[in-house]
## 1
Amino acid sequence: MNKIGIDEVPVLGKRIFVRVDFNVPMDDNQNITDDTRIRAALPTITHLVKGGAKVILASHLGRPKGKANPKFSLAPIAKRLGELLNKEVMMAQDCIGPELKTQINKMANGQIILLENVRFYEEEEKNNPEFAKEMAELAEIYVNDAFGTAHRAHASTEGIAKYIPAYAGFLMKKEVDIMGKALANPARPFVAIIGGAKVSDKIQVIENLLNKVDILIIGGGMANTFLKAQDIQVGKSLVEAEKVELAKELLLKAEKGGVKLMLPSDVVVAKEFSANAASRVIKVSKIEADDLALDIGPESAEHFAQAINSAETVIWNGPMGVFEIDAFAKGTERIAKAMAECQGTTIVGGGDSVAAVEKMGVVESLTHISTGGGASLEFLEGKILPGVAALQDK
C-alpha cells in the first residue's frame, strides 16, 4: 500500500484533476446538513492552491442515474467550499466538453474549479474508457482523495488513472497508511469490535480479522446469531438462522487460532421494538421467548471496555445496539468512551460507529475516523480497492 502522495510531486502551474468525495447529505432545499466530507478534502486542496496548481475538483452526489438533475447539482457545494477556503471556487456547467476545456486552459495558478456531478453521465459508473479519457484530457496529473469511493472502479476513480500520472491525496494517504498498518503490522494486543445488525454484512470482515487480531468483540444484532450458535435461546431477537452454522465455524476458528472471541454476557431486552417500550437488563441465559435483545448489558459493556483499554491497536465497526433509541444506546456509548480512553491507536470506520463517536463528542480523542463506509468495510475484508490500486507505487 506504499503509494506516492501528491506532496511528493511538483505541482506549480500544473492542471490537477482531484477526485474528492463531496457526496454530502442535503435537505429538500439543497442546504448541506453535514459538511464533514468537504472539510476532509481541505488539506489536499489547500496544498495544491499554495503550490500554485490549477485545481480541478470532481465528485459525484447522490444517485442521478446517468441524467442531469438540478437536485443533484454540486453548485451548493462550490459555495460552501468557497466559504471554508475563503476563496472563490468556480462552478463548471459540466464535467467534460470543449467549453470546459477552454475554461480550464484560461485558469490562473492557484484557482479552483468544481466540475458538475460526474454521475450525470452513465459512463461514469460503467467506467467507460472514452469518458475517462475525456476527463483525463482536462489535466496533467490525477489525484484521488476520495477514499469513500475507492472500492468502486468508476471512470473518475480508476479509469482516468490509465491516462495521466495518478497520486494519493492527503486524506487517501492517511486512510490507507493508518488502516493498512493496523491490518498488516499492528501494535499488540490488537482488538477489533464488530457490531451492527447482520453477520451476513460482515462475514468477510470477521474471517479476515480472525487471522490478525488477539481479541474479537462481537455485539449488536449479529451477536444473537453467535449466541444461538452456542445453543443460547434469544427469544424474538434478530437472528440469521441460515448463518448459525457459519457462526459455529467462526467460533471454532477463533478457538483454534488462539483468538479470544467475546460475546455479550448480558443484554438489554424489551417486549417490543419501540422507544417507549419498558426495558430490563438480564443475563443472556435468561432471555424469554417474547424478548427482543436491543443492546449489550452493562456487564458486557465493562468487559468489552477493559479489553479495549488493554489494547495497543483497536478497530471498531458497527454499533452494539439500537443506539438511535436512547434506552438502547448505552452499550455503544460505553464502547465510544473506552475508545477515547484507550492509549493505543484507535480507528473507527462505518457510518453508525462514526455517528456514535460524534454523538459522544470523543472524536478528538481518537487516532483516526474513516470517511469511507463501504470502502472501509472492503479494506477490513482484505480486498484490493480499485481506486487505491490505480495510484502510482513508490
## 2
Amino acid sequence: MYKHEEELCFLSIKEASALIRDKDLSPLELTKAFLNRIESYDQYLHSYVTVLKESAIKSATAAEKDIRQGNYKGPLHGIPIAAKDLYSTEGIRTTAHSRVMADNTPTFDSTVIQRLNSAGAVMLGKLAMSEFALGRGDEKELFPSARNPWNLEHLPGSSSSGSGSATSAGLCMASLGSDTGGSIRGPASFCNITGIKPSLGLVSNHGVVPLAWTLDTCGPMARSAEDAGMMLQAIAGKDGNDPATKNAPSDNYDLEHMDDLRGLTIGVPRDFFFENQRDLEPKVSARVNQGIKTLENLGAQIREVHIPSLKYTVANTVIMLSEAYSFHEENLRTRPQDYGPVRRQFLLGGLLRSSDYVQAQRARKAISLELSKVMDEVDILITPSFPFTAPRFDDRDQARYGAGFRFLAPFNLSGLPAMSVPCGFDENGLPIGMQIVGNFWEERKVLSIGHIYQQNTDWHTKRPSLDFPDLK
C-alpha cells in the first residue's frame, strides 16, 4: 500500500469531490486506491462479503469520462462507497449474511442504491453484517464476522459491523448501514466514525431486507458529520415504492455555518443515561461529559431534562422480535437449519403474545410523547452512544451487551434523528461515541452541531494503525 494511496483513502468526501470536480483527482485513481487497500487489509478485517472490483473500475471510468465532458453530477460523483449486504443490488448477490439468502440475486436495486447510482457514486462492494441484522455476529454464519480495526479481538458493533469496520479503516469513503435498535450508531461508536439514524420515514426502505418494518431506518456512516450530510442529501426523500416515507420540510442537508453555539439549548437526560447505570464505564462518562463541556464552551446552554418513560425502552425489543418473527416464520418452519444463532431470537418473537406487542406499542407512544415535549424545550439532546467500549469477541456476556442498546433504542421507538460522533478513547485505545439527538426532520441541525463539535476537536481524525501481527 503506497503512502499516496493511503492518504487518498483518508480524504474527506468534501476534499475528494472538490479535487474530482476540478479534475485534479481521477475517480479511477481514487477507486483503485481503495481496491488496493481492501486487498491489503480486508483479509484481516472481513468487512466485505463481496468486492465489486470490475464494476467499480467500470463505474469510476464512466464517472471520469462524464466529468471530463462537463457532466459533473455533484459531490458524490466518482466517490467510492459500499453498502451493508441487505440492500438489494441488481445482479449482485444480497445475502443479509445468512445461508437462508445465500443464493439471492435481486433483479432490481433498492431505492437508496438507485439514488446513489444516480448521484454518480462508485460502489466498491457489499459489507458484512450480523445475520439478518440481529445479534453480534458469529463464526457459524455464512461469512466470517467483521473485525474492529482498532483491535481485531473486539467487536466492531452490530449489525452494521462491516460498514463500521470498512469506513473506519479507510476501505471505503462512506457506507450505508441500517438501524433498528442502534445498528448504525453502535458500530459508529465502537469504530470511531460518524453514523446518523435519520428521522423515521425520511429515507426509503424499499428493497432493503427487513428486520422490523416499523423500526427499520436506513442511513449513512462516514468519518465526519459533513460527509454523512453529503450522503444523506443523496438518499433522503419521499419514495412512491415505500408508503412509510414522508415529505420532510426540507431536502437540504448542507451544514449550517455556525461559528459557535450561542442561542442553542442542549438537554442532558442524566437520570437515565448517567446516574444509576452500573454498566456505564467511567471513561465513557468522562469523555461524554467532556464533549458536553466543549459544546457549552462554544456557547450552548446546558439543561438537565427528565424523560421517565425511557424505563420502558425494552419495548423496542418486543416490537423488533415480534415483527422479525412475522417475516421469518415460514423459513423458520421449513429450513431452520439454515439459520445461525439468531434463530433463537426469532423464535422468541413467536412466543410473544399479541398483548405483549400492543403493550410495547403503548410504551412506544408514551416515550414518543415525552420526548416530543422535551424537544419543544431544547434544541438537541446529548447522551453517551453506548455505555461501554467494544467488547471482546470472547466476551460471552450477551445480556450486558444487549442491555447496552438501551442508550440507542429510545430514538428508534420515537423515530427521532440521532447521530453518534467520536469523542475520545478509553485506556485500551478503544473508541467512545457521543450521541446527538434532534427533533423530527432536524437532521441539518444535528449534523451541523456534530460538525462544529468536530471543528473544535480532533477525535474523528484519528485512524486505526492496522498494524496487524501477520503484516510484520
